[in-house]
Amino acid sequence: KARLNEEAVIGSAGNTNKAYMTYSNNPHSDTMGKTETDTVIVFTYRLDVEKTDGTSPLGGAAFALYKNDFDGNWDLVKTFAPDPHQTEFSFEGLDDGEYKLVETAAPAGYNKIEDQVFNIVADHKDGTLELISLNGERVSGTIELSHVVATGTLSTTIVNEKGATLPSTGGIGTTIFYVLGGVLACGAVVLLITQKRMRREG
Questions:
Q1: Which end of the chain is more exposed for a tag (fewer CB within 10 A), N or C?
Q2: What H or E segment, with its residue span, contains residue 187?
Q3: pTM
Q4: Per-residue pLDDT tens for 129-145?
């Protein structure tokens, strides 16, 4: 087993791991045998997120990144708290797989974006343990990802729009409008019937 730590190299250089086993099948001798060395290279990547208002950097947002464990669960990779001065967010130690970027807080006066789901897809050259391609493929949302294979970096820009969030179709906001509309319609019918009766009695 191997554990990725903060000293891991990000990008095409990779992280080389070597392993071999020593053994003895003679209990009467201290002589040890040794297997051939097995070498593997582990690659890891980074996601850089820039927050803007469409024209300039925008502080005050907060993000969380989750990874799909392929059992229907989203495991938290890293989260950031709101900071009025922070406009760039980096998530390191990523590997291949499906991820979800969630804006947990939007700057004051701006709308939060919908959750952005994407895949990190990497390809390795057979027999050389060499990273030859790295891509971010959108699954849902509007996210667009650029990439640099050498540095193992995926980058995206997240834009917040100003204004109050409108009720979504089928959401609680729409339900409230339906209820109010029904109440007003019933009131209008009652008023119409009352006026007709008053006219007849008059």
A1: N
A2: helix 172-201
A3: 0.68
A4: 677 888 999 999 999 99
Q: Of all residues in the chain, what percent are helix, strand and coil, respectively (each to 5)? A: 15, 40, 45
**120 and 71 in contact (C-beta within 8 Å)?**
no
Question: Strand, helix or coil at 7?
Answer: coil
Q: Give dist(CA 31, CA 1) in Å, integer.
A: 27
What's the token pair of residue 107?
Answer: 């700057």
What single letter denotes the amino acid at residue 154? L
How is residue 110 written in tokens?
């701006």
Q: Which two tokens stand for residue 19?
A: 């392993």
CA distance 132 to 137: 16
Say whether 199 sits in a helix, a strand or coil: helix
